[in-house]
Amino acid sequence: MILVTGGAGFIGSNFVLDWLAQSDEKIVNLDKLTYAGNLQNLSSLSKDTRHIFVQGDIGNTQLVSQILVQYQPRAIINLAAESHVDRSIHGPEDFIQTNIVGTFHLLEAVRAYWDELEFIAKQNFRFLHVSTDEVYGSLTQNEPAFTEEHRYEPNSPYSASKASSDHLVRAYHHTYGLPMLTTNCSNNYGPFQFPEKLIPLMIVNALAGKSLPVYGDGQQIRDWLFVTDHCSAIRRVLEAGIVGETYNIGGWNEKPNIEIVQIICTLLEDSFPGSAFHKFITYVKDRPGHDRRYAINAMKIERELNWKPAETFETGIRKTIQWYLNNQQWIADIQTGAYRKWIEKNYPKLLS
């Protein structure tokens, strides 16, 4: 049994589906079901006894403690987080509460649980904290990519809150001996991503004939990681990572935002001959403190754990676009809020 926090979100739901496709080991899935938490992503598991869903907040120490005592997980994958930079700029408090205070309460509950485990279970237990490359700050065009030794220089309320949570995890390992692992990933993309992030926003807007807003000059560079590659990396770190270590997970796909948008337009135009999606590209005022470049050096995880991504950006973006084309109802449910009604209908006790 493992516990996954945030398992109804974008990365979380992909991880749960991926885990249960690879293993019969059960998952307890704890998710608060904020706007980005969508149980409809996991509808294929609605009758699967290997998936146990609990609605709740990682900041609820009593609830987390009850889950730990009842299910006795051998590992925790902490994916619960507020994660959208734009939202953190306009409303930072939720990010402080979830990513910092919530992580603290989660760690306290886990520490109490771990202290009571028998010797072998205690030795084998793992807490894997999933974080972001944004904690490292911004790079210039020619600087080398982020390694695990790069100092933290967060520039947004979101990245600052994630940096704080990383530091808490490190402190609980060094102070209390909790067996921690940390991963810092680059920009994820793929199925089930809430359409406020760049790639799904461009796909959804293009299909609706809406403008494709590009911040500033569009030359902000990101490394892109297909979400199932991220899931396989998390599994590998959990399996073989050295306690106390950090592993950067990247896709080796550095591209400027405008190039991403242009690729999406070209691929959609291939799917809809005679269309002209490029004409919808619109440059808008840049967001405050917009980091210029992120880049992940993922050599450590490749060298020490023999992991590297299976997808190139070209294969991953084609799969992503095709998923959104095949799941128009999912898009409609997100845009209208109907996915919340789906949860109420299928899980009536959760949102009452």
Description:
With 352 residues, the protein is an alpha/beta fold. It has a single domain, classed as NAD(P)-binding Rossmann-like Domain (Rossmann fold). It has a 7-stranded parallel sheet with strand order 3-2-1-4-5-6-10, with helices on both faces. Strands 7-9-11 form a 3-stranded mixed sheet. The longest helix is centred in the first third of the chain and has 23 residues. It is globular and about 65 Å long. The mean pLDDT is 94.
What is the topology?
Blueprint: E1 2-5, H1 10-22, E2 27-31, E3 51-55, H2 61-71, E4 75-78, H3 85-90, H4 93-115, H5 119-124, E5 126-132, H6 157-176, E6 180-185, E7 187-189, H7 198-207, E8 212-215, E9 221-226, H8 227-240, E10 246-249, E11 254-256, H9 257-271, E12 281-284, H10 299-305, H11 313-326, H12 328-336, H13 338-346
Parallel strand pairs: 1-2, 1-4, 2-3, 4-5, 5-6, 6-10, 7-9, 8-12
Antiparallel strand pairs: 9-11
Helix pairs in contact: 1-8, 2-4, 4-6, 7-9
Please outline what is shown here:
The chain is α/β, with parallel strands linked by helices and 352 residues long.
Give a quick set of tags describing it:
352 residues, alpha/beta, Rossmann fold
Mean pLDDT across residues: 94
Tally of DSSP β-strands: 12
CATH fold title? Rossmann fold
What is the global morphology? globular
Instruction: Specify the CATH homologous superfamily.
Output: NAD(P)-binding Rossmann-like Domain
The description of the largest β-sheet is:
7 strands, parallel
The side-by-side strand order for the widest beta sheet comes to 3-2-1-4-5-6-10
